[in-house]
Amino acid sequence: MLGDDGAHAHGSHHTSDGSNENTALLPSFLRGEIAHEGESGRHGFHLRHFCSVTYKSSNVVSQYVNFLWPFAPLAVIFRYALPNHPLLIFGFAYVGMVPSANLLGFAGQEFAKKMPKVAGTLIETTFGNLVEIILFIVLIVKHREPTEGEDGGNGDEGNLIPIIQAAILGSILTNLLLCLGLCFFVGGLRKTTQKFHAAISETGNGLLLVAAFGLLIPSAFYSALKGETTFGKNSLGFVTITDKFTPEALQKDILKISQVTSIVLIIAFACYLLFNARSQHGVFHEVIERDEHGDLDREEDEARMKYTGTETTVALVISLVLATLLLIYLVEQIEAVVHSGVPDQFLGLILLPLVEKAAEHLTAIDEAYDGVINVALYHCLGPSIQTALFNGPLVVIVGWMLDKPMDLNFEIFMIVLVVLGILVVGNFLRDGESNWLEGALLVIVYVIIAIASWYYPNPDVATSNGIEALAVSADAKNVTIDRALLKELLLMANLNTKNTAPCQ
Asked: 225: left (phi > 0), else alpha (psi -120 to 50), else beta?
């Protein structure tokens, strides 16, 4: 399908069985319909052309990003030559991830152009999310459970689950607020008002609300019941209300709820793909086609050299291998980075999503600047939907398979930010228009969240969604006391002390 670019009639809108371009996506995909703009006019692999196409990429910004390529091999060299400098390795691997993700995104674009319109957009979005999937899997594999007597609450102690949870929500926020905000902003600078189709905005926002509801349930369940797990004795000597509903039992319930919810969310994602593939294929195809014809840089884009099918495959393999290596090096140094003073939540919510979404962001911003706002919107909402409905649930299931307690019990502070972010974006999408001011406001909201996440305490200190308790020693017995009740007891003790104090 990929190797013979010139084998298809240029500009043909019919498949071999005579069906037109509005035929449902999945059948046409299986028949191998290829969009004419994906043709390179060459066959096989040509090193000079491959390097030239890779350097020029899809736009000027991506071309400048290629100047960061030296950081990728240097990160590999430093990983083995300077193993005692973790921050240096992290820094070079972090920067080197940008051109690697950019190449993966560009190769995904080239692959997508050889597919039907809607299928191509979905495939392009999927390739843009591969880096995120790899990151989540590497993080859960590297996660280390605390040993007996070890607190293990922070990333500097091997507990990577809070960072994964923050990265899931941070990825959604980065797409919805930063990327979409920059798309609205740069698009508004070139064109006062940009209009987008309701089929994309309403479907995307509706799915995100459903996803946020699914992600919120485990956290809400935990917050509602965490106060009920105190004052009664269990086999470990801890005090709880009943030995049948201990904190450990609640954690197990949350884990089971998260695992089942993850399966349901993945089913919802399959429904979303099927909806795009069949029910709304004609609508989405028409919207994307109309946007591409209105592309302000259409002639320049069509004149660019393109990969052959073989070159596309080579680019995908190279970028995937490099991205995987660099992500492994990043994760290996997380303990040192957190130990140096970077908070867990800031690392997961801001730093990691920025680098693993770099390619998707550059593509979307370039499309918005070219006036292709519907495609740009698809590239902002699509990855967010995939993260919430597939990538996040997938890492829960992978953790389940690896017997690691990865759940969807997010910090309440974080999940509230996501829900509010979705509501803010939905309000801006409601009128079907965008301008630079709306984009600037979305970016400002993202900056405020980034500032707050920097000061948000690490999991061993933060208790917004944990058992608020204090362990004390009394007669060689461990006692767990609810913080609110403890305050009341201390107040009562203080009052009693004042009442019984001798008169002077």
From this structure: alpha
Which residues, at least 6 apart from 331, have a Cβ–Cβ distance to it below 8 Å? 135, 138, 139, 142, 160
At residue 481, the 3 state secondary structure works out as: strand
Q: How many C-beta atoms surround the C-beta of residue 410 within 10 A? A: 24
H runs (alpha helix) in 143-192: 161-173, 180-190
Distances 438 to 187, 191, 385, 449, 450 between C-alpha atoms, Å: 11, 14, 21, 17, 19
Distances (CA, A) of 134 to 175, 356, 386: 18, 10, 14
Query: Which of 495, 436, 471 is CA-nearest to residue 190?
Result: 436
At 280 the three-state DSSP class reads coil
Distance CA 483, CA 353 (A): 34
pLDDT, tens digit only, all 504 positions of the chain: 444 444 443 444 444 444 444 444 333 333 444 445 555 556 777 788 888 888 877 677 778 888 999 999 999 999 999 999 999 999 999 999 999 988 888 888 788 777 766 666 667 767 778 889 999 999 999 988 766 555 555 655 678 899 999 999 999 999 999 999 999 999 998 888 888 877 777 777 888 888 888 888 999 898 888 776 554 444 545 444 444 567 788 889 999 999 999 999 999 988 888 877 775 555 566 666 666 665 556 666 666 777 888 888 899 899 989 999 999 999 999 989 988 889 888 999 999 999 888 877 887 888 888 888 888 888 888 889 899 999 999 999 999 999 999 999 998 888 889 989 998 998 888 888 889 999 999 999 999 999 999 998 875 544 445 444 444 433 434 445 555 665 565 566 555 555 555 554
Phi, psi of 197 (to 5 degrees): -80, 140
| Other beta carbons less than 10 A from residue 286's beta carbon | 15
236, two tokens: 């470990």
The CA distance from 131 to 320, in Å, is 8
Token pair in block for residue 326: 């660099």
**Cα separation of 434 and 306, whole Å?**
32
Closest CA to 170 of 388, 389, 428, 429: 388
How many Å apart are CA 299 and CA 239, to the nearest integer?
A: 72
* Interior/surface letters 477-487, b for 16+ CB within 10 angstroms, e for the rest: eebbbbeeeee
3-state secondary structure 108-152: HHHHHHCCCHHHHHHHHHHHHHHHHHHHHHHHHHHCCCCCCCCCC
SS (HEC) of 333-365? CHHHHHHCCCCHHHHHHHHHHHHHCHHHHHHHH
Tell me the three state secondary structure of residue 395: helix
Residue 468 DSSP symbol: -
